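We close this part of the discussion by returning to an individual protein. The amino acid sequence and the backbone structure tokens for this protein are reproduced below:
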Amino acid sequence: MSPVAMLFDINGFTQKAYDDILAELEKMGAWPSPPGLLSHVAFQKGESWFVLDVWASTEEFQAFINTCLFPVFGKLGLSADPPSVYPVHAYAKNGGPLVIIN
């Protein structure tokens, strides 16, 4: 299993929608520490919201979106295209060494 970067680019999303998603995930016990999540960043650029995560593996990421994230989207009446997923070449944790993956 190799780390992957996941990038959601969601046009027309709002900060409230993002905050509502996190609140629902917290109620489920699926946030802020789902298995396999290494880092999470969310930001707005123009009319789009971006979420960039690094996950320990594609399998852990897929399990999270299928069992937690997309059901929450449905509950809140939200939709988004599937994220882009990229293999990670290097990863560093704060205070730790740079790890080259491949």
